[in-house]
Write a structure and sequence with these properties.
The complex is a heterodimer of chains A (782) and B (159). Chain A is an alpha+beta fold and 782 residues long. Chain A has 19 helices and 30 strands. Chain A has a seven-stranded mixed beta sheet with strand order 3-6-1-13-10-11-12, sandwiched between helices. A seven-stranded mixed beta sheet of chain A has the order 4-8-16-15-14-9-30. In chain A, strands 19-27-28-29 form a four-stranded mixed beta sheet, with helices on both faces. In chain A, strand 27 (629-641) and strand 28 form a beta hairpin. The longest helix of chain A has 28 residues, at 542-569. By secondary structure, chain B is of the alpha+beta class. Chain B has two domains: 5-80, Beta-grasp domain (Ubiquitin-like (UB roll), Roll); 89-157, DNA polymerase, domain 1 (Orthogonal Bundle). Chain B contains five helices and five strands. Chain B is elongated. In chain B, 57% of the residues are buried. The model of chain B has no long low-confidence stretch (mean pLDDT 97). The chains are: A alpha+beta (782), B alpha+beta (159).
């Protein structure tokens, strides 16, 4: 189908407010009589609380109250399990241990909340936090992913026998058999470390219990307003209709804002009901580093069995995944790692053993990429090492192993994060890969530029890596679309927006279907008063799951419009067209009626209507896919290493992306750019340094380095289009794609730039210091 | 309250006289006392640049300044650049180039760039990267921001 508005580079409707300071973020909510909360957080990663004395803090003028776990009484209960273990797998061990609102006896990570002060302003609240006196008994911290499983390790949760949080095995085919026939077996160990999501807006919450109205109003910088509403109502013993949660403009999400419930989200609603006054809490950056969820630490022992020609016969993998102090988010992240450890390749035999451990570190939940970058890193690195052993071109070994286009839908016979079969719905990998190689100028670089630059003493290298991304998973999203009497369109979906341009790209779908301008569509996201059902913004699923719900609702409204207009205009439906906010008989423009007039006719004030008639031109529809839509892409870069400073300069960066039908290419490109910047952070800049006592050593943006404009290359984005076969729009997700393959491509390029060292990089992130250490080790071994 | 400071300053061309706590941050004063919430606070330690405002025309970090330090100075915030119906060419350029996603860091970029563009009417890409290297953005990878700055320079040159 040829689109007029979908797929166009439409300017965003949300921008004017954002650009002029007129958009509402959670910290912009200021209510009369509002109080401010500040939290006392543990200085220790692992310690028993011996005594808390809040008496001094309570004497400070302006302090309204100081509360500990004891004060919450029966309202104290841990957060809900968000994602249960996979019900479809056998022999799964899963020890659910959930975060608590206020720590009762033992703190399990630095930054965990012990007490809360409520005061007339934030300055006073923070002063009072300093006046709480606390006696701890520090305990040895559980930090290392392997030592934590030794029998003499201290325990994060003392009611368990060990620090094992979960264990499961997924397999397809018979790896042992594959091993027996292999010409080459490669074994490597990988260590991938932690990073932060570091959205520019920290978390925040304003809660307002209205005693007379018996209603709780909440503004929350969350990716998931509807489940937050449901959970808050349940925890407080309210009906869902007594709670409204608004996720207003949210300043970046990247995963951690999907976590439900953070301790603060459990404490504040309780406080406002106690105090019957609005309460605000805005996280500061230091709190964000300690208390907002993080990701990526895993250790892998990997084996790849290959034929002499370079065919992958099988992959065996043992993963240890760090979930931090609790595991509310289940196994989503490591299941994604398992789903991506075979990459874009046809692998018949796979054995993947997953062990999840508790440590005295910040809770782990998905961060942009969500376990996928680790999987892609593993398989792509292994292929690089295999190509070297077999003396093959790294391009050839990939071409040899790609899933061929005729093999789709390709069922991997394991489960993915949604607990459904890992099925790749569609794909066409080879042309996209070849295009990336062409655009980066692979042959010319290897044959001409690299030799010339090396002769000049420059250390330049190239890396090109393909990847898949499972996107658009269920369970479902919904959308409501309605034509107002003004002829303008009101629409809503339950997913929250943290910069993904939903107000524009979803409006494009509606404008396309109903023949109106994008500006005529008012798209509300993230307000539970506008739509009752939904899950949230995660897993690169907005354009797929919410987008197709929007499309279905708009099509249904269109049908209602046609039915009514057909009667009014006395014209068969199939002779009517929707254009410029009018319905008209094709070729007879004067025989027309506006959408606004039809909306009024659809909602009569007097008179009888036909039985079964629904008022208005409105529809609510849901979309839930049987399985996800698998996107594909290739990233290539040419980089240079300064051998004195170990600083890296990226000279060229090319991406080919295939997310099926694009709603708005401008938005797709923006998503890729941002993803690459986070991916480069994961390569060389962003590492959360926890010491052996579980202390985070770089909890500030001055010490934890996120890429600035100076570190970022210019990124060329090329689009391919293999539409998703199982949704009407043909969309696939692209929100996380930019971040996923970057470490694998970067390390390939780095090794290529330093051939004399014969590096085999099996870790992320590196840094100038770490690269220097690796090179020194090689020098010593020479 | 004791020890209050009698603050008088001009913000976006409007004069204000207020009593403030001497330790009140300029960012909190602008946002919560004057209701100018377009200035955003991302780190409260002067690194991210989201809270940048102009003090007598020069970019400063409002999270690192006490409100009394702005006494008898002129402050410009993002609300002073343009309105929804009459945006500054720099704001227009940001929209056209899709230079913002979540939009949280954007006010700081705009206030950093406004005086800089006046001094650098024909900036190169390298100069732009240097100029915005003190402002962090987590969404855009900066590329569309750089496109927007080039576009804004053209628009401003064309008057």
């Amino acid at each position: 189908m040829k689109h007029k508005i979908i797929g166009k580079r439409v300017k965003r409707v949300e921008d004017p407010r954002l650009l002029t300071g007129g958009a509402l973020f959670v910290d912009d909510v200021n209510l009369p009589n509002m109080l401010h909360a500040a939290f006392l957080r543990s200085d220790y990663a692992h310690a028993r609380i011996k005594n808390i004395d809040t008496s001094q803090a309570k004497t400070i003028p302006g302090v309204v109250g100081v509360y500990t776990a004891e004060d919450m009484g029966d309202a104290w209960e841990p957060g809900p399990p968000l994602v249960s273990p996979p019900p479809t797998l056998e022999n799964v061990i899963f020890n659910s241990r959930r975060q608590v609102p206020l720590v009762k006896d033992k703190v399990k990570h630095a930054g965990e909340i012990i007490a809360v002060v409520v005061a007339e302003n934030r300055y006073i609240a923070e002063d009072a936090v300093e006046e709480i006196s606390l006696e701890y008994e520090p305990l040895p911290a559980v930090v290392d992913l392997e030592k934590c499983l030794e029998p003499d390790s201290p325990l994060v949760h003392e009611d368990l026998d060990s620090n094992l949080a979960a264990h499961l095995i997924q397999q397809k085919g018979d790896y042992q058999k594959a091993l027996a026939t292999a010409d080459l077996v490669i074994k490597k160990r990988f260590h991938l470390d932690r990073g932060a999501a570091a959205a520019m807006e920290n978390r925040g919450l304003v809660v307002d219990w209205n005693e007379k109205d018996q209603h709780l109003m909440v503004w929350d910088a969350t990716q998931s307003p509807i489940p937050i509403r449901n959970g808050m109502a349940s925890r407080l013993g309210l009906r869902t209709h007594q709670v409204r949660v608004v996720a207003p403009f949210v300043g970046g999400g990247f995963g951690p804002k999907i976590m439900m419930f953070y301790a603060e989200e459990m404490v504040l609603p309780w406080l406002t009901r106690q105090l019957k006054r609005p309460v605000k809490w805005i996280e500061d950056r230091r709190e964000n580093f300690y208390a907002t969820t993080q990701e990526r630490e895993q250790i892998h022992e990997v084996e790849m069995a290959l034929s002499r020609e370079g065919r992958i016969l099988g992959i065996k993998q043992k993963i240890i995944h760090d979930t931090g102090a609790y595991d509310p988010y289940g196994l989503t992240t490591p299941l994604n790692t398992q789903s991506h450890s075979m990459g874009a390749y046809d692998v018949e035999n796979y054995y993947s053993e997953l062990t999840v451990v508790f440590t005295n570190k910040t809770i782990v939940t998905p961060v942009r990429g969500a376990g996928r970058p680790q999987g892609i890193f593993i398989v792509e690195r292994m292929l690089d090492f295999a190509a070297r052993e077999l003396d093959l071109d790294p391009r050839e070994i990939r071409r040899l192993n790609f899933i061929p286009p005729e093999a789709f839908p390709y069922n991997h016979e394991i489960i993915d994060q949604a607990f459904t079969d890992l099925v790749f719905d569609s794909g066409n990998y080879l042309p996209a890969y070849n295009k990336a190689l062409e655009k980066i100028g692979y042959d010319k670089f290897i044959q001409e530029e690299q030799p010339r630059l090396r002769a000049e003493g420059k250390h330049v290298g190239i890396g090109v890596v393909p990847f898949i991304e499972t996107t658009g998973v269920g369970p479902y999203e919904g959308a409501r679309v309605a034509i107002e009497p003004s002829g303008k369109i009101s629409a809503a979906t339950g997913v929250g927006t943290q910069g993904q341009s939903h107000m524009t790209s979803f409006a494009q779908i509606i404008a396309e279907v109903l023949g109106v301008e994008v500006e005529d569509v008012s798209m509300v996201t993230g307000d539970t008063a506008e739509i009752h059902w939904g899950t949230g913004t995660f897993a690169s699923r907005g354009a797929v799951v919410a987008g197709n719900a929007v499309n279905a609702a708009a099509l249904d409204v269109r049908q209602k419009v046609l039915a009514l207009a057909s009667k009014v205009l006395k014209t068969p439906e199939d002779e009517l067209e929707l254009e410029g906010g009018q319905v008209r008989a094709a070729d007879i423009p004067e025989q027309s009626i506006s959408l606004g007039e039809l909306a009024i006719l659809a909602n009569p004030f007097r008179g009888a209507v036909e039985p079964g008639t629904e008022p208005g031109l409105e529809s609510t529809k849901y979309f839930g896919p049987a399985y996800g839509a698998t996107a594909f892409g290739v990233h290539g870069m040419i980089l240079e290493v300064d051998p004195e400073t170990m600083m890296i300069k990226i000279h060229k960066y090319v991406t080919v992306e295939d997310c099926g039908t694009m709603l708005n290419p401008l938005v797709v490109e923006g998503q890729i750019h941002g993803g690459v910047s986070m991916g480069l952070g994961n390569c060389y800049y962003e590492k959360l340094h926890f010491d052996e006592s579980g202390q985070l050593l770089n909890a500030s943006l001055a010490d934890y380095l996120i890429p600035s404009a100076s570190e970022m290359p210019h990124i060329e984005v090329i689009h391919e289009n293999t539409p998703a076969p199982n949704n009407a729009l043909g969309t696939k997700g692209v929100g996380e794609a930019g971040a996923i393959p970057v470490p694998a491509a970067f390390m390939q390029a780095l090794e290529n730039a330093l051939p004399e060292y014969n590096l085999e990089i099996t870790e992320t992130p590196l840094s100038p210091n770490r690269l220097y250490e690796l090179l020194q080790k090689k020098e010593r071994n020479k | 309250m004791e020890n209050q400071f009698d603050l008088s300053l001009t913000v976006n061309g409007v004069s204000y006289q207020r009593e403030v706590d001497p330790r009140r941050l300029l960012s909190d004063f602008l946002r919560h006392d004057l209701g100018l919430t377009g200035t955003h606070v991302g780190c409260e330690h002067g690194v991210c640049g989201a809270c940048t405002v102009l003090l007598d025309g020069a970019p400063v970090r409002s999270c690192l300044i006490f409100a009394p330090q702005a006494h008898e100075h002129e402050i410009t915030t993002v609300e002073g650049l343009g309105t929804i119906d009459d945006m500054h060419p720099l704001q227009e350029a940001f929209r056209e180039a899709h230079a913002l996603q979540c939009g949280f860091c954007t006010p700081g970029f705009l206030t950093t760039l406004l005086p800089w563009l006046e001094e650098h009417p024909q900036p190169s890409e390298e100069e732009i990267r240097e100029a915005i290297s003190g402002n962090l953005c987590r969404c855009t990878g900066y590329q569309h921001i750089i496109d927007a700055v080039k576009l804004a320079a053209e628009k401003m040159a064309a008057g």
